[in-house]
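Worked example

This section walks through a single chain of length 355. The input is the sequence exactly as stored; nothing has been trimmed or padded.
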Amino acid sequence: MQTFQEFLTTGRRGNNWATIFKMADESGLDSTETVTPATKTLHSLKRESFSKYMRKKLSYVAADINYRELCLALKAGTGEDYIRDELVASFCHGRYCTVLEDTLVEKIDDDCEERKIIFFNINAEDYCMDREEEDGYVAHGVCAMLVPRKRKGYDLYYMNPHGEVMKPYTYYEIIKTRTRCQKLDFDKEIIDVVVMRSIVDYCNKHFDHDIHYDGSLRHNYLGVNLQEEDVHGVCYIFPHLVYYYFGKYFTEKRELEAEGVKRSLPSFKEMLDSGDFNLAIHSCFAEFDTNYKKAIMDYIKVVPRTQRVEEKVIVEQLITCLDKAKYRFLKKASDSFVSFICQDYFKKQCYFTEK
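Given that input, the structure is written out below as C-alpha cells.
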C-alpha cells in the first residue's frame, strides 16, 4: 500500500479536475449516500494507517442529517421525535466490513457504552437554500467527533469547512414560492450549533453519557473558510481529510517542516484537551500549501500557549495564504486524498464495487 504521504510528494504529477471528479464518483467519496465503497475504505484506514490504540478505540460512522427537516421539526416542537426516528447512521461491522445501518442516536448510545472515540462523517442534506439547485437546497459535507473525557462523559467537536463564515447564519431559510422564502430564527445561535446541540440534548436526556457541547471555539471550528476559492463543490474532501489526520495523529505528535525548519505539533488529543480545537483542524490542511504551513508553524512555536497570537490573527493570516494559493490548495487536497483512497491496494481488497 502507498501511504498518504507518498501522494503528497511535491514532485508527483497530479491529476486534472476531470480525473479527480471521476475517481471521487466511482469510489463514492463525493456521494450524498451513506452506504458507498468509500464507507468501507475509510473504515479500513483504522487497520491500514492508524495506531493499534485507534484501531481498537475508533468508530467511523457515516451519518445522514437533513438540516431543513430538523430545523422545521425543532420549530414545530417535534424535534425529539425526528431525531429519534429519522437520523440514520451507517457503519462497518465484522471481519468483512459488512455495512450496517441504525438510527444515529442508538449508534451513539452503543458506542458510548463501549467508551469508543467516534468520528461522524456527516452528509448535511438540505444544508441551506440555493435556488440554483433543482430542489432549491444544497447538500454539504461536515463532520463531528465524540471524544471520551478522562473519567466520565464526552466532548463533542463539530467541524464545518466554512469556519467563521457560519457565524451570521442564525436562521434557516425555507422556500415558500419562486420569489419568497421564510426565515426560521434561532435566537442568534448558529444553525450548525442548533443542529448539533439538539442531538446532544436528546442523547443527554435519554442516555447516561453526559456529552458536553456548546457554541464556543472549544467545541466548534470557526477558523478560516477552507472553501473560499471552491468553485467545484469539493466540500466532501474536508471531513475525509480531518478523519485521516484525527485518526493518524490522535495520540501521536506530528512534525511539520518548511524550508529546513521543523516544528513539533502536539497530538490531536493534546490540542483538544487544551482547548485548541481550531488549531487541530487548521493543522489538518498544512501540507497543501507552503505558506499556510509556515503560518501554522509560526503560530505553534511560541510557548506557553497564552503568548500566541490571537485566534483572529492566525485566521487572517490563513485567509491571506489561501487567497494567494487560489485553486491550487483545493486541487492538491482533493487530488492527493482521492488518489490515496482509489489506489489499487484498496480496490483489490474489494472495497470497491466493480463497474
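What to look for: The chain has one domain: 4-348.
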